[in-house]
Automatic annotation (TrEMBL):
Its EC number is 5.1.3.20. Coiled coil: none annotated. InterPro entries: Epimerase_deHydtase (IPR001509), Heptose_epim (IPR011912), NAD(P)-bd_dom_sf (IPR036291). The chain crosses the membrane at residues 12-30. Keywords: Carbohydrate metabolism, Isomerase, Membrane, NADP, Transmembrane, Transmembrane helix. It comes from Arcobacter defluvii. GO terms for molecular function: ADP-glyceromanno-heptose 6-epimerase activity; NADP binding. Residues 13-257 form the NAD-dependent epimerase/dehydratase domain. It is an enzyme of class 5 (isomerase). This is ADP-L-glycero-D-mannoheptose-6-epimerase. Pfam families: Epimerase. It comes from the Bacteria. GO terms for biological process: carbohydrate metabolic process.
Length: 335
């Protein structure tokens, strides 16, 4: 599906974090729709190293790129020498910056700020030199404890959310300058869909509940889950937003969600219906109280107006189209 009239054939596109969930979907979007687009994936890929929370330092996985025929570079966005080489060896037209410590429970503040904030600014400098448009991933985690999900009302409650606020602040600073490029920040809400499996425990609860149900287990929900509401957004709508962000003169920071909060209980109900397996539900205490978002709902008015974005997947549809992939992963990776 093409979301705008831009012909990306013969363009050069850098996708940082391209071996991860969203970045790899973007890489295939270009490969499938614009076969003559030169796609460069930069990702540090997993090494087995972990953070103090026990989770992997990188969720990048070669299997997310099986069938990809572009250029793959294994490297760290914190490596200034590598960034210099990219600046010299390529001439990018678009940079889709998805690389980040994407795990919201990581507590290493030094590395979080370096990777998410400082490396972003260094990539932005390359974008300016190349006259490339920058489209980067911000997050709904910027809102944290806020009850107003509009740009300007951020209140992050963990260092991850803070790092994304800092990225947005850098963006606003650069947009005050007279630059010849556009810079678009996309505050993704809770994304689910193909190629998220290798995020392990940080993959969406759609996938995790799906696999619990297929294993014949009773899905474990946090207590009060019917009142824990989030804006869950299907990967295709994330791709739509990224592509619309390449239209000229769209600079700004926008929410990318469905505009409708849904409960974790809803996810389980829809999955149980679609999978035709009902093992009931079990409720467990929530260990993340204090740094946990109990309600998120994207205000997408300005996203609609300025990007022309219109989410196509309500949760019922998103989960329905995702079911065959949830089953395939269960057969090939879980069982
Ligand atoms: N998935 C969501 O629900 C969601 C929501 C809001 C924002 N985001 C943001 O969207 C972006 C993509 O997230 P995702 O869900 O695809 O996560 P992901 O972890 O699957 O992808 C991030 C990729 O970045 C790579 N990476 C991490 N540190 C790197 C470094 N120093 N150098 C090079 N590569 C590095 C990882 O290897 C990984 O492949 C991230 O910026 C994330 O913060 C995601």
């Amino acid at each position: 599906m093409k979301y705008n009239d831009i012909n990306f054939n013969k363009k050069t596109v850098l996708i940082t974090g391209g071996a991860g969930f969203i970045g790899s979907n973007l890489a295939f979007y270009f490969q499938n729709n614009y076969p003559n687009c030169k796609v460069v994936v930069l990702d540090c890929f997993r090494s087995g190293e972990t953070f103090s929370n026990g989770n992997l330092k990188s969720f990048g996985h070669f299997k997310n790129l099986l069938g990809f025929n572009g250029i793959v570079i294994s490297g760290d966005i914190n490596d200034k020498k590598l960034l210099k080489e990219l600046e010299i060896n390529y001439k990018f037209d678009y940079i889709f910056h998805q690389a980040a410590i994407s795990d919201t429970t990581v507590s290493e503040q030094d590395l979080m700020i370096k990777t998410n904030v400082n490396a972003y600014e260094n990539l932005l400098k390359i974008a300016i030199k190349h006259k490339a448009n920058m489209i980067y991933a911000s997050s709904a985690a910027t809102y944290g404890d806020s009850n107003r999900f509009e740009v300007g009302h951020e209140s992050p409650n963990n260092v991850y959310g803070f790092s994304k606020v800092m990225m947005d602040n850098i963006t606003f600073e650069y947009l005050k300058k007279d630059l010849n490029i556009s810079i678009v920040g996309l505050k993704y809400f809770n994304v689910y869909g193909s190629r998220e499996f290798f995020k392990n425990k940080t993959a969406s609860m759609v996938l995790q509940f799906g696999h619990q149900i297929l294993k014949g287990l009773t899905p474990k929900l946090f207590e009060g889950s019917d009142k824990i509401l989030r804006d869950f957004i299907y990967i295709e709508d994330i791709i739509q937003a990224n592509i619309l962000a390449t239209n000229p003169k769209r600079s700004g920071v926008y929410n990318i969600g469905t505009g409708k909060a849904r409960s974790f209980e809803d996810i389980v109900n829809i999955l149980q219906k679609e999978l035709e397996i009902d093992n009931g539900k079990e409720y467990i205490p929530n260990p993340y109280v204090g740094s946990y978002q109990f309600f998120t709902e994207a205000n997408i008015e300005s996203t609609k107006e300025f990007l022309g974005y219109n989410p196509r997947f309500e949760m019922e549809e998103g989960i329905k189209v995702y079911i065959p992939e949830i089953k395939r992963l269960f057969q090939e990776e879980v069982k």
